[in-house]
Amino acid sequence: MLHQAVLFVHVIVFAMTLAAVLREDLRLLVTRRIDAPRLQRSARSVSIGLAALWGSGLALVAIDAATSAGPWLPSAKLQAKLFAVGVLTVNGWALHAWVFPRLWGVAVRIDRRLWPAAALGAISSASWVTASFIGVARVVSPWWSFAGFMALYGAVLGVCLALALTA
Questions:
Q1: Disulfide: which of 20, 94, 134, 162 matches 81 by Cβ 3.0-4.6 Å?
Q2: Per-residue model confidence (pLDDT) at position 144
């Protein structure tokens, strides 16, 4: 029962946070303009959501480990998800520490000079999408290795970087 309640919270927070990330990324791709106040609000809500996802995700791992019948070993799926979420967390820190402070309070048209910001945004999108896929990959996960999940992550990252840096 506890597992189901924590999973429900995790999924709801995930849906809300992913929607905020994708909505902002799509808006940036379409308009090619940065609306600093809107980006700041989105960044704050995504940070809160990510913290809640770490908390609920680690709670799910702890519950699974505590209720495991035998020696508990993390699966390739869990390892891949932790990797993707770890990358998106570090990447989010970089966005908040280096990119966003330079954008607050200014109207900026996106151009080639902002390629570092675009690259970090692409890494964010790729990490969120990959973690999302891994989270729902119950059917394929028994047959996928960590390397398989990472190959998928690399492909998604390549597409996101290409879109962000050439659009």
A1: 134
A2: 94
